[in-house]
């Protein structure tokens, strides 16, 4: 039985990857951080009572900022594959916590690679590094491929650039099977609530149900190549099943503005939105609401700009070229943007219907707009 170790198992990708590897018969080990509240919502359905025999899902307390802890866990698990998904993954927050981001996302990758090297596992353990389309940053050329030059535009991206190159370096210096997946944005109903897609789908559902008045956003002109996390974790696994380790771009090849994502999310609920004004003055308003369940009136302003969400330096345009992954890995995304938006909006609608019922029955209080 193959053993996999996943850092960041409590995150969006970690949860889907753990599911995939368990389905494939792996023994799955995950590293979770100690937290004052439970932080395992996304993987609770995978939990197995550790007293049972044949337990194939195990969690270890740890942190990428602690090298002795990394060494101990790698030694204990002796993994065939490591997926390094753990990171401070929010681009905007990285401007507020740049040093921590460099430590966890940049040096954290080094700590893991060093653990494998020090323990003499360079020939046994394959490593996947969660690299990112944020490496491309300031647009040099589109679509972005494995040969496009990098120009990172945030402390997050600069830290990930170190993670990218230290992975390449360990591959070349020590002959390790280590590779970078340069993944473009991927989303799902499990996406963190402060990333723009989930923020939008949550708000669309909450506004429709009368739980929120307005949605405040930053740069609506940014363009992203959005795929589904389920498809992308399949690509991660495929990268570690090759003869030789190589780096791959994973993307859909289609790009969309944030504004269009907002329009599609509200349209999924039967709410037609229009936009007027420019820059900080731009608003999104109801043109028509086809769903009688939602008490929204034409002209009502649902979307407004809050410059607090602008970034000091922005990545304006991402569109990936996944040709290499398609040819060499046989990878194909199964979701298009319409299917992704539909799944996310419907999941949030179901989630917040429960809140609406509880509120109506007096069992909950209305939270302020997010
Ligand atoms: P999430 O933010 O959902 O998950 C991040 C995970 O990393 C969480 O489990 C988090 O733990 C953990 N983590 C954070 N800091 C540390 C630390 N110091 N030590 C150990 N674990 C830590 O991210 P995603 O699942 O979306 O992304 C997975 C990886 O892929 C990340 O590295 C991200 O940067 C990268 N990536 C993501 C893309 C995307 O579009 N989703 C695209 C390209 C790359 P906790 O739950 O305790 O916070
Ligand atoms: P990103 O994702 O920065 O691409 O990083 P995010 O969803 O945060 O932003 C996408 C774009 O939307 C614009 N935007 C807003 N973003 C947020 N979060 N909140 C807002 O209110 C808002 N308004 C507009 C942003 O300016 C940006 O242009 C994600 C993360 O998962 C990284 O870890 C990963 O490496 C990259 O995707 C690929």
UniProtKB/TrEMBL annotation:
<keyword id="KW-0456">Lyase</keyword>
<dbReference type="GO" id="GO:0008446">
    <property type="term" value="F:GDP-mannose 4,6-dehydratase activity"/>
</dbReference>
<protein>
    <recommendedName>
        <fullName>GDP-mannose 4,6-dehydratase</fullName>
        <ecNumber>4.2.1.47</ecNumber>
    </recommendedName>
</protein>
<dbReference type="InterPro" id="IPR036291">
    <property type="entry name" value="NAD(P)-bd_dom_sf"/>
</dbReference>
<dbReference type="GO" id="GO:0070401">
    <property type="term" value="F:NADP+ binding"/>
</dbReference>
<dbReference type="Pfam" id="PF16363">
    <property type="entry name" value="GDP_Man_Dehyd"/>
</dbReference>
<feature type="domain" description="NAD(P)-binding">
    <location>
        <begin position="5"/>
        <end position="344"/>
    </location>
</feature>
<comment type="similarity">
    <text>Belongs to the NAD(P)-dependent epimerase/dehydratase family. GDP-mannose 4,6-dehydratase subfamily.</text>
</comment>
<dbReference type="GO" id="GO:0042351">
    <property type="term" value="P:'de novo' GDP-L-fucose biosynthetic process"/>
</dbReference>
<dbReference type="InterPro" id="IPR016040">
    <property type="entry name" value="NAD(P)-bd_dom"/>
</dbReference>
<keyword id="KW-0521">NADP</keyword>
<dbReference type="InterPro" id="IPR006368">
    <property type="entry name" value="GDP_Man_deHydtase"/>
</dbReference>
<comment type="function">
    <text>Catalyzes the conversion of GDP-D-mannose to GDP-4-dehydro-6-deoxy-D-mannose.</text>
</comment>
